[in-house]
Design brief:
The protein has six helices and five strands; from the N terminus they run H-H-H-E-E-H-E-E-H-E-H. Strand 3 (119-124) and strand 4 (130-133) form a beta hairpin. Helices cover 29% and strands 17% of the residues. It has a five-stranded mixed β-sheet, with helices on one face. The longest helix has 13 residues, at 51-63. The protein has two domains: 10-43, no CATH class; 79-178, Ubiquitin-like (UB roll) (Roll), CATH 3.10.20.600. It comes from marine sediment metagenome. Residues 2-58 form the NADH-ubiquinone oxidoreductase 51kDa subunit FMN-binding domain.
Length: 181
């Protein structure tokens, strides 16, 4: 097992771009017909998993797969780590079982919106995700439901916006940062 720190470019979150970066090449994705488990890093069989995946391995080994699959929803098992940031009282990393609602994450865990301001939206799923309005705060967190709401789970990012947040400014800032390599 080898652990490397990424270069920070958003595109290097894609596995083949990450491997190219580790090889000292520009962090650009490879053609998808190349299977990295056969020919990956330095043309050797390679598997890449994120830290969140590895963090679940000891739990599953110690408690068993049956125990783990009882957590979550029928289509989204286990837990998910979210980065809760923005206009929120308790920002930080939170781990929740799949199936909790956005409202529970934002208000029960995150402590709600500072200074008594109104909630406007939460951007989930990182740059490829979408903004979920107040009217959908009671949807459950799983892969299917976030997709139906026009967003996604993605990397677990949650940017909470209040009534004074300009969503265009947030999108501009996020995309301008993520587009730089």
């Amino acid at each position: 097992v080898r652990i490397n720190r990424g270069g920070g470019a958003f595109v290097c979150g894609e596995s083949t771009a990450l491997m190219a970066s580790l090889e000292g090449k520009p962090g650009e994705p490879r053609a998808k017909y190349i299977h990295t488990v056969e020919k990956g890093l330095w043309s050797q069989p390679t598997t890449l998993n994120n830290v969140e995946t590895w963090a679940n391995v000891p739990l599953i080994i110690n408690q068993g797969a049956d125990w783990y699959t009882k957590i979550g929803t029928p289509n989204s098992k286990g837990t998910k780590i979210f980065s809760l940031v923005g206009k929120i009282n308790n920002a930080g990393l939170v781990e929740v079982p799949m199936g909790v609602t956005l409202r529970e994450i934002i208000y029960d865990i995150g402590g709600g919106i500072p200074d008594g301001k109104k909630f406007k939206a939460v951007w989930t799923g990182g740059p490829s995700g979408g903004c979920i309005p107040e009217s959908l705060l009671d949807i459950i967190i799983d892969f299917d439901e976030l997709g139906k709401a026009g967003s996604m789970m993605g990397s677990g990012g949650m940017i909470v916006m209040d009534e004074n947040t300009c969503m265009v400014d947030i999108a501009f800032l996020t995309f301008s940062i993520k587009s730089k390599g």
